[in-house]
């Protein structure tokens, strides 16, 4: 059985993703799939853990558990036998113990190797005029390297893990539909500061079954795919068959529903517009996206309820309202009051109204 230190980084990242304090969590490494009820009943027999519930599982072999009581790592057994003839479960908890010399030496060698450096290169970085480098300079160099690699590995750690997606229909309980998963994946890729390698790892952790087979096949054809390529491959397999142009055409046909508030119509426009941009139906700067949104608001507004919208003018400047402000202005107000509050100067031509 592997040593728990090999899994502590994974455990720590998982706790961050689930917003779970490490002092109230533990991770089990199991040899095969185990039912949630069996895990919880077994852990309840360990008095120092208190009440325990399973928070999630990863690749069938890793199980994250939340404990009601604060965990004292010294009291938790390193392994748990669910029954006498079973393979023991490895228990991973938060630990403040300093790594032994052999473990530090191994990590240092791996770090230098990944950076394409040797110990001689590190010594040369901070060497003095004397034949042998000062010990403090060497330690400082190693510390700088460790800080840099530590920062890289923790970038984007606050981003919540992607939910599970398998491509199975109907969507199983506990999994996301493709549209919701796709939105989360695009947000992670666009906003997370971590490396593309880390983004690909997060995507691979979240997919199962048919979705995993799609990525494996794509990687066999092109080994150096990016994280965006991963998502595009899944889009081709599980996403809408409509092109960006088709989605844009559908967006331009959207109408306010009977008795639908104007603010609700604004919010309903946002998701289709995001899909149009993802599919490349149009390429817009922020100010142009605002313009398209407002144009469609006027185009699709209920003519019976908002007839005066056709007589209004909108200012086409960089100060056009952002989505949040537009939705807030529409809340509980008539369409005329909304548009007037935005500022009225330059005319805007609307198709489809007479």
From TrEMBL:
Domain of life, per lineage: Eukaryota
Occurrences of domain Paraneoplastic antigen Ma-like C-terminal (ranges): 165-321
Extent of the signal sequence: none
Protein name per UniProt: Paraneoplastic antigen Ma-like C-terminal domain-containing protein
């Amino acid at each position: 059985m592997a040593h728990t230190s090999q899994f502590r980084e994974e455990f720590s990242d998982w706790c961050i993703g689930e917003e779970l304090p490490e002092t109230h969590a533990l991770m089990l490494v199991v040899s095969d799939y185990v039912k949630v009820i069996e895990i919880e009943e077994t852990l309840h027999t360990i008095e120092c853990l208190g009440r325990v519930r399973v928070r999630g599982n990863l690749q069938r072999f890793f199980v994250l558990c939340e404990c009601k009581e604060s965990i004292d790592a010294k009291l938790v057994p390193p392994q748990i036998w669910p029954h006498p003839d079973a393979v023991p479960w490895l228990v991973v908890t938060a630990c403040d113990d300093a790594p032994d010399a052999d473990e530090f030496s191994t990590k240092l060698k791996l770090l230098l190797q990944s950076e394409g450096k040797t110990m001689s290169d590190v010594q040369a970085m901070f060497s003095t005029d004397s034949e042998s480098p000062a010990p403090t300079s060497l330690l400082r160099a190693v510390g700088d390297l460790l800080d840099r690699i530590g920062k890289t590995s923790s970038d984007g750690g606050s981003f919540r893990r992607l939910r599970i997606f398998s491509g199975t229909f109907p969507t199983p309980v506990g999994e996301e539909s493709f549209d919701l998963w796709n939105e989360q994946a695009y947000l992670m890729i666009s906003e997370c500061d971590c490396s593309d390698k880390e983004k690909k790892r997060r995507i691979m952790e979240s997919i199962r079954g048919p979705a995993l087979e799609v990525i494996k096949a794509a990687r066999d054809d092109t080994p150096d795919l990016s994280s965006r390529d991963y998502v595009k491959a899944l889009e081709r397999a599980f996403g809408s068959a409509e092109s960006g142009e088709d989605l844009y055409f559908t967006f331009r046909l959207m109408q306010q529903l009977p008795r639908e508030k104007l603010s609700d119509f604004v919010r309903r426009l946002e998701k289709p517009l995001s899909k149009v941009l993802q599919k490349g139906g149009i390429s817009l700067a922020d100010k142009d996206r605002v313009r398209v949104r407002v144009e469609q608001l006027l185009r699709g507004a209920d003519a019976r309820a908002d007839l005066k919208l056709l007589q209004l003018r909108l200012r086409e400047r960089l100060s056009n309202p952002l989505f949040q402000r537009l939705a807030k202005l529409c809340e509980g107000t008539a369409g005329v009051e909304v548009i007037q509050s935005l500022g009225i100067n330059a005319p805007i031509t609307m198709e489809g109204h007479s």
